[in-house]
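Render this sequence as a predicted structure.
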Amino acid sequence: MLDIIIRNGKIVDGTGSPAFMGEIGIRGDRIVEVGRITESAVREIDATDRIVTPGFVDTHTHLDAQLFWDPYASPVCWHGSTTALIGNCSVTYAPVRPNGKDHLSGVLESVEQISVESVNAALPFNWESFSEYLTAIDNTPKGINMAAFMGHAAARVYVMGDEAIDPKRHPDDKEKKELQALLVDALEGGALGVSTSRTYTHMDPQGRPIPGTYAVEDELRAFGEVLGKHGGIFQCAARLGEGDDANHTGTQEELTWLSDISIDFDIPVVFSLFTGLDHGPHYHRMILGWADEHRARGANIRPMQNSRVGTNLFGAMNFLGVRSAAWAQFNQTPPSERMSLLENDDFCAALTNISEEAEANFAARFWTFDERNLDYRRRDEDLIANIAKANNERPMQTVVRLMKETAGQQIFVSGSNNGVYENIKDILSYEHTIPGLGDSGAHVKVMTDANLTTYLMSHWVRDTGLLTLENGVHRLTAGATDFFGLKDRGRLVPGQFADVNVIDLDNLASEMPEYVYDYPCNAGRWTQRARGYDFTICNGRVMIEDDKHTGSVNGRLLRYQQ
C-alpha cells in the first residue's frame, strides 16, 4: 500500500517536458510511481483541475537565523517552496570564533536588517566551524529543506580578525591556505559552495563595506581552486554599475573574472543581477549580452533575478521614513497606540510640517499599495504626488489622511533594486536566468519578496504567457536543483524525493502583506501568504493543505552533490 496517491492531476514534472494527465504514488519520502496507478493508498488526493509540480526551490534567502525559531520558514512555506538556500551574499553565522558572534550578528543586521536582539536570543551559537553550523541546522526541526553556502565575510574575519575589514589588507599565502581550509571543511560538511559580496551597498555596523568587498582576484581564485577540486558553486553579489565609467568597464571586468573562475576551475557561478533606475533602460541587456559572450567561451555563469519588482513597504504598522520630530515620535510609539496620535489634530498637523524639499521628494518616490496593486506594477494614479494633486492637498496631508481612513492599514511603497517592470520581463525572458533574490529572512522590517514563486506562476505563466507552464515550473524546480547540486529533487519521477505541489493555478495569488510581531523579543516583520496551494508535500508528508500549514516539520539539511 502506498502512503499517498495524487490522482487526476495535470502533471508538470519539472523537466520541461509537456504536461500530461496522470497519477503520482508516494511511499515514505519518495515518489515510487508516476502514470496510471491501480494500487491503493492511506490517503488519496484528488487533483482534478489542478496542476501537480515538484516543490519549488527558493534560491536566495537569508533564513540562516530564522530557521532556529521558525521551523516553518515563513513566508517561504506559503509559496510552494519545499527547499530554501541560505548563506548568500557573503554573510553567515559561521565560521565564528568563540568571541565573534556579536560581530557576525552586527554584520547581518547591517547588511540584511536581521535583528541582533532576535538572533542573540534564539541562536545557540554552539558551533565554530561551518560544518558544525550545518550539523546544528541538521539537528533543528525544519518545515522545509535547507541548503547553505559558506560566507566569505565570516571566513575572512575568522582568519584575519579585525584586519579583515581593511580594503588594503589582503591575505598572505598562509591566510589564503586557512581560508581554503575553512571552505574544505564547509564542503565536506555538505555546503553548496561559497558566497561573496562585491557591492558597496553591503555595509558593516560602522558603515564600511563588509569584509571581502575589496578582495583581489587572487583571493577569490583561491576559493575557486577548492571548489574545482571538491565540487561546489560560487555565488556572488556582484559589483554591477557601481563606480562605472561610461563604457561600463567595471561591470565588464566583474563579469570577466567571474567567468574566468568558472572556466579555469570548471565550476558554476551565479551572480545577483542588480539594476537600478539610474543605470539606464538598456543596462541589463548589456549584462545579459556579456554573460552570453562568456558562456560562449565556456563559462557556466548565470544571473539571478527576482520575478517581480522589488518593493519596500512602509506605513503605520512599521514606520515611515520621514525625518522630523513628529514622525520620530510616531515611529517610536508602540503600534497599538499610534492611532490615538492620529486622532489628535495638532499632532497630525505636526506630521505634515516637513520641508518642501523633503515633501516633494517623498511624493515623487512613494506610491500607495493595496489589493489592486498585487501585480506590483506602479501606476501613475497611485503616486502620492498625483493623489495629492487630484485631492487639492499637500502630499503629507494625503499620507496622514489615508492612514486615518484605513485605521493605520494603508501601505506606502517605494522602489528598491530591480524596480522596473519591463526590465524584470526582459531578464526573466533570458533562458539562463535563475529566479531568486526573494531575500526571505532579510530586510524584514521593510520587505517581503518571498512570493517570487507565486508571482512567477500566476503573473508570468498564467496571466501574461511570458513563460510556458512547463518552462516556468522547470525554472523553479529541476532547473534550480540541477544547477545547485541538489540531486534526487526537482522532478516528479520515480526515485525522487516526494517534494510536491498541488496547485489551483486559476486561483493562484499572493495575499496582502501583513506586519506581524512574531520574531524573538517581539520584533516585527513583514510577511505574505498565498492562496491556491491545495497541497504542498515535503519529503512525503503534507506540509500545506488548503493554504494552511499542517504543523509538519519534515524538512532536511540538503548537501551538495556533484
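Summary. Residues 277 and 376 are 16 Å apart (CA to CA). Residues 249-265 form the longest helix (17 residues).
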